[in-house]
Amino acid sequence: MAASFASKCSRVGHSLFGGLGNSLSGLVTTSQEIICSKFLSQQQQQRSFIQMRTVLKVVDNSGAKKVMCIQPLKGRKGARLGDTIIASVKEAHPNGKVKKGKVVYGVVVRAAMQRGRCDGSEVKFDDNAVVLVDKQGQPIGTRVFGPVPHELRMKKHVKILTLAGHIA
Hints:
With 168 residues, the protein is of the alpha+beta class. The protein folds into two domains: 2-44; 55-167, CATH 2.40.150.20. The chain has helices at residues 2-17, 25-44, 158-163; strands at 55-58, 64-72, 84-92, 103-110, 115-116, 122-123, 129-133, 144-148, 164-167. The strands form three sheets. The protein has a five-stranded mixed barrel with strand order 1-2-3-4-7. Strands 5-6 form a two-stranded antiparallel ribbon. The two termini are 39 Å apart. Keywords: Ribonucleoprotein, Ribosomal protein, RNA-binding, rRNA-binding.
């Protein structure tokens, strides 16, 4: 794959600046590097499911900062908006309800993977975020920070919607 990537970058740079003289060789090299870095960043930014070992941001006041997904529930390959996951707390506030290393349940409230809506629009967020819940599905924290999609209503997570400040 690295060889095909290098050949694509060299072809793109060569076709754009092939007719220039030798005096602009530094410009050609710089342009090739820019084109190659853009191509590489587009490949790295392909969106995927919330799957095992995905690190998510916690957007409630339960005490945890970051969690790592251990297993998406419902036996699927990955989790999307509104799905429940089992996660391990990786970073936590010192005086919070949840401590580092604890295994918790969480509901995915923001996902970088796009999701289509009934009206034809799509919703996509910049980060992956989760709200921690107990086994019955009730939130551990009392506040939810940032936007939360209204798709959670269909998944029966109405309590999270009532705690949220902004519904997207």
